Amino acid sequence: MFSRVFGLLLLILMARCGGAPEVNCDLIKVAEIPMEVQDKLLVVRVGINGKWADLIVDTGAERTTISQSAAKRLGMPDDRDHITHSVGIGGATTTADATIDRLVMGGVHFDLQEFHRFAVGTFDLQTQHGLKADGLLGADILLAFEMDIDVAAGKLTLYRSRVCGQAHPPWSEPWVEIEGVKARKDRLLVPFELDNVAGMAILDTGAMGNNLGINMARRMGLSEQTLARDRKVQQHGAGPNVAIARLHQFRVMRIGPISQLSPLITVLPSDFGVGDALIGEEFLLGRRVWLSFRRNPRVFVSRRPNER
User: What pTM did the predictor assign?
Assistant: First the structure.
């Protein structure tokens, strides 16, 4: 009798708590989007309001953002009820959002109940080195899915987010997992070490190089006098201004089991609000990358041929 009552009580408690979380390891493809490299950045073509737009795949951008000129060309009306204040490299901007009627990626129409407004930026994403982009495909859309960034095959594949602790990328090539990944403010942060000093970095597919914030630089003992001896570089961001940074050579950077000797890293005069650094395409290019965010943050990268 006791065992029956105990069993019934256990069932009631499980029902109240919702029971154990459902484990689902099924890999369900949502969209496969052609992708190309332009000036070291990853660019995909998407349909917005029945017209084509080229967007940089940018996990470091909190929101999907369209340039002012592209918003006008695509017929995206201002939404004065939603104003975006952006602070980053290049200063601060304030703009009204723009609304969209249709969003198509990889031939798939996306539900606009969730993705119906884009931020608007004052930037110009046209360069002499081949970049011709209209905006940024940001973390608000990208990190709603599991992502397979396959530069060699020229495609970005989005999969339905899963609850599966044992899920691995469905690849034939060798891969490694970056342990200790965190999710914070719609960002994926990966642990790294720079000259034996630990930090957390935003994994930023929209950054050409690796960038270090000033606070971690100071923790590492880099003084203004030391940095003043390094070469000046100009940094452009979402803001209208140009930031002057320094290109400093470190001894070794470690991300998971992967080490890079004598890396040249841009030291910025400011910080990012989240994390100590940006890990960009300098680390990611030449690799296949798998990102999971929503339910179980994980990062997998393929090894380069010369890496063990």
Answer: 0.84
